[in-house]
Specification:
By secondary structure, the chain is an alpha/beta fold. The protein has helices spanning about 20, 30-50, 135-145, 160-165, 190-205, 230-235, 255-270, and strands at about 1-5, 55-60, 80, 100-105, 125-130, 130-135, 150-155, 170-180, 185, 220-225, 240-245, 250-255. Helix 2 (about 30-50) packs parallel to helix 5. Bound molecules: zinc ion. Zinc ion binds near residues 8, 10, 62 and 63.
């Protein structure tokens, strides 16, 4: 079993504010929460190893994607580090046998979801694939599904874990906090979260045989509502994008990686508008 682990930071126990997870203009709390984040990832790796995973490939998927304290991870894992990866939070997954999403968060628009957003909140107001409202977990799991990799396990707040399980009932989860709106949470302690993750990750690997692939049936219609009308003005200029509303565009393709890359183009270029 070769495990792919995509890790984000907003869904880590105790996290409830951007300052805690902002690597670019570090606030006094960032170094501490960066450690909790690394410890949750390490706990998931330990659990996965105990469950039978042999190789682990970690993709640091938060912000500038350079947050993990690398010397606190086991020496025999590989880590994808740094930003502007073509497949972003699910870069390099091809060839893996199963996946974990650790520290994930709710979709933009979710109620009671700490720091919820979908990739770039200054650009993406809503993302739908074949009519289904998507979180980061949804679109990321669908790319993995295209490559034949089932999502096995997710950690985050209750909204995130239950949201993933509503779309992918086979996915096991660890709820580390109850979100009280966008900027407060009722959380278990970091140590308790790490122990629960170690235990549940092991179970997730042990039950990997029951997991299924999450995919969208082609043709795949991607509809994106942009945060600002001018972003829709610019995105609609890209060949293949059709304007469907004041700030909404549609892109249709048979091939999921093409959909994923088009989505990355929208949130990256839209941020320049
Ligand atoms: Zn993040």
């Amino acid at each position: 079993m070769r495990l792919y682990l995509s890790s984000d930071m907003e869904g880590v126990a105790g996290v409830c504010a951007w300052e805690q997870v902002d690597a670019r203009t570090p606030h006094a709390e960032y170094p501490l929460f960066r450690r909790y984040y690394t410890q949750e990832v390490a706990a998931a790796i330990e659990g996965a190893r105990a469950g039978g995973a042999r190789e682990v490939l970690v993709n640091d998927s938060h912000g500038p994607m350079r947050n993990l304290l690398l010397d606190e991870l086991p020496s025999d894992v590989r880590v994808i580090f740094g930003n502007r990866k073509p497949f972003s939070m699910v870069q390099g997954a091809e060839g893996c046998d199963g996946a974990f999403f650790v520290g994930y968060h709710g979709a933009i628009g979710d109620e009671n979801a700490v720091l919820c957003h979908t990739y770039t909140p200054s650009v993406i107001y809503e993302l739908r694939l074949n009519g289904v409202r998507c979180s980061e977990a949804t679109i990321n799991a669908a790319l993995l599904g295209y490559y034949g990799i089932p999502l096995l396990y997710v950690t985050g707040d209750r909204t995130t874990v239950e949201g993933v399980q509503a779309q992918m009932p086979w996915v096991r989860g660890t709820i580390v906090k109850e979100s009280i709106g966008n900027f407060s949470a009722d959380s278990i302690s970091p140590r308790a979260a790490q122990a629960a993750i170690r235990r549940d990750a092991r179970e997730a690997i042990a039950h990997a045989g029951a997991a299924r692939l999450f995919t969208f049936e082609p043709p795949i219609a991607m509809e994106i509502a942009l945060a600002k009308v001018e972003q829709a003005d610019y995105v609609a200029l890209i060949p293949g994008f059709e304007r469907i509303g004041e700030r909404s565009v549609r892109f249709v393709d048979q091939d999921f990686p093409t959909i994923f890359k088009a989505f990355c183009a929208v949130f990256r270029l839209g941020a320049l508008a």
